[in-house]
Amino acid sequence: MREAGRGQRDAGSVVPAAYQPPLPLDRLILPAGAAGAGDRMELDVLIVGAGPAGLAAAIELAQLAKGYGRDVTIGVLEKAAGLGEHSLSGAVVNPRAFRDLFPDLADSDFPFRAPVGKEAVYLLTGGGRLRLPVPPTMHNGGNYVASLCEIVRWLGARAEELGVNVFTGFPAAALLVDGERVAGVRTAATGLDRTGKSGPTSLTPTDLVARVTALAEGTRGMLSQAYLEWQRVASANPQIFALGVKEIWETKRPLDAIIHTLGWPLPADVFGGSFMYPLAPTLVALGLVVGLDYRDAGLDVHQLFQRMKTHPLFRGYLTGGEMVEWGAKTIPEGGYYSVPARRSGAGVVILGDAGGFVDVPSLKGIHYAMQSGIFAARAIFQALSADGPTSERLAEYDRLVNSSYVMHDLYRTRNMRLAFKDGLYRGGLKAGLMAFTGGRFPGRRIAMPPDAAVARRVRVAAPFVPDGKLTFSKADAVFKSGNATRDTIPTHLLVGQDVSREVAELYARMCPAGVYEVADGSLRVNAPNCIDCKATDVLGPRWTPREGGSGPKYKKM
Amino acid sequence: MRIAVCIKRVPDSETRVKIAADGKTLDEAGVKFVVNPYDEFALEEALRRKEQGGSGGGEVVVFSLGPPAAQETVRTALAMGADRGVLLQVDRIPPDGWPVAQALAAALRDGGYDLILFGKLAIDDSNHQVGPMVAELLGLPCVTAIARLDLADGRGTAEREVEGGIEVVEFPLPAVLTTDKGLNEPRYPALKGIMAAKKKPLDVKPTALAVGGLDVVALTAPPARNEGRIVGEGPAAVPELVRLLREEAKVL
Amino acid sequence: MSHVLAVLEQRDGALRKVSHEVVTGARRLADALGENVDALLLAGAAVPGMNELGRLGADKVTTLTNPVYRLYAPEGYARAIADRAKAGGYRAVVFAASATGKDLAPRVAARLQRPLAQDVTDVAVEAGAVVAVRPVYAGKALLKVKLAGSPALVSLRPNVFTPVDRPKAGVVEVAVVEGAPGRVTVKQVKAAEAGALDVAEAAIVISGGRGLKEPANFKLLEELARAFGGGAAVGASRAVVDAGWRPHADQVGQTGKTVSPSLYVAVGISGAIQHLAGMRTAKVIVAINRDKDAPIFKVADYGIVGDLFEIVPQLTEAIKKLHA
């Protein structure tokens, strides 16, 4: 694998990092009291993001407050118009965090679809498949197939019952700081036109000032990135990402097992695999996950996923059925070595995917996210009851996470994903060894570059013609994500300088939603198509928060 | 001004329609419910009129006939700025506009409203009738589907889109109006509005509906279209297309 | 005597085309009931064309004239029609689901305290009761309803009840009547755009999308519309309405109008699903697009692949010749 530095480019390759603007810290970090907000609200605890981590934190905090007879005002800001609309995952969920959060409830009370029964793992070839033994890290006995959207809506209802204020349709656009302390956030403006001008129904940003701000923004969270960069919090490896593209189908043929595959149609030098889970026997969730460190600029994850469905294994289930939802999201894959050295500071904690708590070998993140939320809530409550949310007090959150199964699990698989940088077969071999030795061999940290620094060979890709029945174009796919973003919204994507045609092609292939097109040799940006997967933030133009309610409206993803 | 706005809880316009097991109603599993978009124009108009009324005071009261979950719908209206809400609670909203109109008229009758506003239709059943029916029951003048409104000295002028033109209509107050797209641009509820809404009065009144005369026989998917075909390429294909349209499709 | 009352419409002293559809729908009901069709028109003065309604199935055609009825008078019309319906003991009252009809029918229904099925695409009689079918959920489903009792009130979606010859006596009478206009006064009907036919009413809709490249090119479609001799309107996809090329009134799609013309021609429109929702019930769909893989070809009944800038003028010429 060849690592290229910034600005280096030879005739046949591009390095995405050379074209990426830096994180606009001057926009993302503002002094508390800065001009620009129309309104101001005060809360005790502000949680940014109503995903599993944020809602678990809100619920645990509200339960503690209730139990101790304390009054703690809790607000959760969510950029989607409705709970769950930006949530997407496979998913097969480990119930332990649910049990920790709701000790009085039984598994049957939780918003799961069905317990995992049969499991199968296959290595796919162009026309066939080879059944593999299920790797030790991937055994899912005792876990449940679930829809993350349904989980989030359920958690949201529990939170509201406990008096938590959940504000949907309000993205946090900037951190408010007071010296080194995080003092709250400022929301994004709404109702601006294409040029950024406000109109009669525009809403100016609101400042939400809080004693503690919990950043639970999910994958590639803006404010989390900004905080860590501003405070120069390091991690051993940079965070790396995979892009998952997923569909839900109503099928004629029932599925009674959870299935994972490796191999076809992914080239051997690309990390990734697929999943197919039954939400109900004839309601199937399936998707393809691909590491964004791929070396071929012509690789298009959405297209690969569409091709994948033509394999007899998938075609057999999908034929005669109907695709009812489509979506995509990135997943932080760096594991143990990419988790920041600290995820807390004065007035702030970072939860869930934003903190990198995802275990790729077992494809798990939801229960880690919730557990991190629970720990954060406990640390916050203690801090508020004592001398306040200082960095020392909130460091308790880090101690709780570090000494728990969360970090223990991540440590055990710390090099498995990283081993795949050597390709499927050598990497697979290494990963297999790690699995059998509990991570001890090979044990030393494998260094990884950030995805954007990886050079990609330019290649003219063959055009892809979807059939509209089994395979779909990006335009039709985006429609099925429920995206109905206002067409006149100002663009939220920060494009770098001098984007060449080859780079524009790379962006067009990278984005699953068709935001980027090459028109007349230059880059055209269809920003309203964006479904907030964040692949662009990893490899291309930087993503920034936009008007609340923009983006997808997932229902069962 | 005292203004009443009647709103309806409806499935989101992007809803994928699945028919319930009874073959007559929508399967509501996983369906997202919102304030009927046409009612938002009514609500926005009411809020603007009240704000323009200045220190004379005024009140915007929101009414909705719906199931218990419609409380959330009323709260959304309160978050936009309405002062208080009334939910006429029923088990299910009937498919027949007449009993709905009767229940709403009874609740509105003694309110002394200068204006009673509705959206022109609800995007689920498109019945397009409750507003004018309520007006008849209350004996009030009514104009439907207004896209422009001017009020002065106890009288109003409205414009409504008709085929190939715009109808200009005058009427006295108090009146019932139903609103169409283009009347205004509804505001987004602000965070403070959402917080304040939690404390505003919301009256829940269990309501018995009169027996209507319209019943649902069945709810079905629309018939699937047949596969079409490409007739040819370029301008040379035009004569064949015209022939097919005349002789086969019989539309020319 | 329990006949079917068909409520007609006029504007500027001329019978509106939709009146033929109302008679047709009323005739369908009346045949199922074994009854007559009485057509009723309110107008400022007698209006030509009434005697043609016998051919479409009207047994009797009545015009009630009064100066206050020249323009639509909501309260005056509602009272007159409700009184007539009551006095005549009608079994059903049929309106057009035009802008006027959709306003008028609920008022009449409330006066008669009867239910109303608005904007229906089919009417019939089953087990002695009037049943109707109406699109709901923006055309994503069809609702069949049964109207109990008498009279049953329905309004018919324009462009669906294609007039058929069902000749009946068509006795014409004109009566000057008293009329009170009511409190709601229509002052005038202003022209929206000179001579423009409304997208929701036209029998033929020619819709343009981004493939037209710029707003000025819509004149190609306007010429094609003119070639059809007055029954055609130009519509637009959401993309071009949002780009400001065409007014919202022309938009066909989910948030624009729902159209059901006999012929819908999609020019330079790719056919993304949003656009299709609005034209779902059109009788015949023709697509013209240079991309043979455009999704619209899957929905169109007939398609031509190629450069629209060459094809549309050719089609315009062919249609002109047809009508010459």
Written account of the structure:
The complex is a heterotrimer of chains A (557), B (252) and C (324). Chain A has 557 residues and is of the alpha+beta class. Helices cover 25% and strands 23% of the residues of chain A. In chain A, helix 2 (52-67) packs parallel to helix 4 (148-161) and helix 2 runs parallel beside helix 8 (366-385). Residues 1-9 of chain A have low confidence and may be disordered. Helices cover 26% and strands 32% of the residues of chain B. In chain B, the strands form two sheets. In chain B, strands 9-8-7-10-6-1-4-5-11 form a nine-stranded mixed sheet, sandwiched between helices. Chain B has a two-stranded antiparallel ribbon with strand order 2-3. The relative contact order of chain B is 0.18. Chain C has 324 residues and is an alpha/beta fold. Chain C folds into two domains: 4-176, Rossmann fold (3-Layer(aba) Sandwich), CATH 3.40.50; 204-323, Rossmann fold. In chain C, strand 16, helix 6 and strand 17 (284-289) form a beta-alpha-beta unit. In chain C, helix 4 (218-227) runs parallel beside helix 8. Chains B and C meet through helix 3, helix 4, strand 7, strand 8 and strand 9 of B and helix 2, helix 3, strand 7, strand 9 and strand 10 of C.
Give a topology summary:
The complex is a heterotrimer of chains A (557), B (252) and C (324).
Chain A: E1 13-14, H1 25-28, E2 29-31, E3 39-48, H2 52-67, E4 74-78, E5 92-93, H3 96-101, E6 114-115, E7 118-124, E8 129-132, E9 144-145, H4 148-161, E10 165-168, E11 172-178, E12 181-187, E13 206-215, H5 222-230, E14 241-250, E15 257-263, E16 272-280, E17 283-291, H6 301-308, H7 312-318, E18 322-332, E19 344-345, E20 348-350, H8 366-385, H9 391-402, H10 405-412, H11 416-419, H12 424-436, E21 456-457, H13 474-479, E22 493-494, H14 501-510, E23 516-519, E24 522-525, H15 535-539, E25 542-543
Parallel strand pairs in A: 2-11, 3-4, 3-13, 4-10, 7-15, 13-20
Antiparallel strand pairs in A: 1-21, 5-9, 6-9, 7-8, 11-12, 12-13, 14-17, 14-18, 15-16, 16-17, 19-20, 22-25, 23-24
Helix pairs in contact in A: 2-4, 2-8, 8-9
Chain B: E1 2-7, E2 9-11, E3 33-35, H1 37-52, E4 59-66, H2 70-80, E5 84-89, H3 97-108, E6 115-119, H4 130-138, E7 142-152, E8 155-162, E9 165-172, E10 175-179, H5 191-197, E11 202-206, E12 214-220, E13 229-233, H6 238-247
Parallel strand pairs in B: 1-4, 1-6, 4-5, 5-11, 6-10, 7-10
Antiparallel strand pairs in B: 2-3, 7-8, 8-9
Chain C: E1 4-7, E2 10-11, E3 14-15, H1 18-33, E4 37-43, E5 60-65, H2 74-87, E6 92-96, H3 99-112, E7 116-120, E8 122-126, E9 129-136, E10 141-147, E11 152-156, E12 171-176, E13 185-191, E14 204-208, H4 218-227, E15 232-236, H5 238-242, E16 263-267, H6 273-278, E17 284-289, H7 296-299, E18 302-305, H8 308-323
Parallel strand pairs in C: 1-4, 1-6, 4-5, 5-12, 6-11, 7-11, 14-15, 14-16, 16-17, 17-18
Antiparallel strand pairs in C: 2-3, 8-9, 9-10
Helix pairs in contact in C: 2-3, 4-8
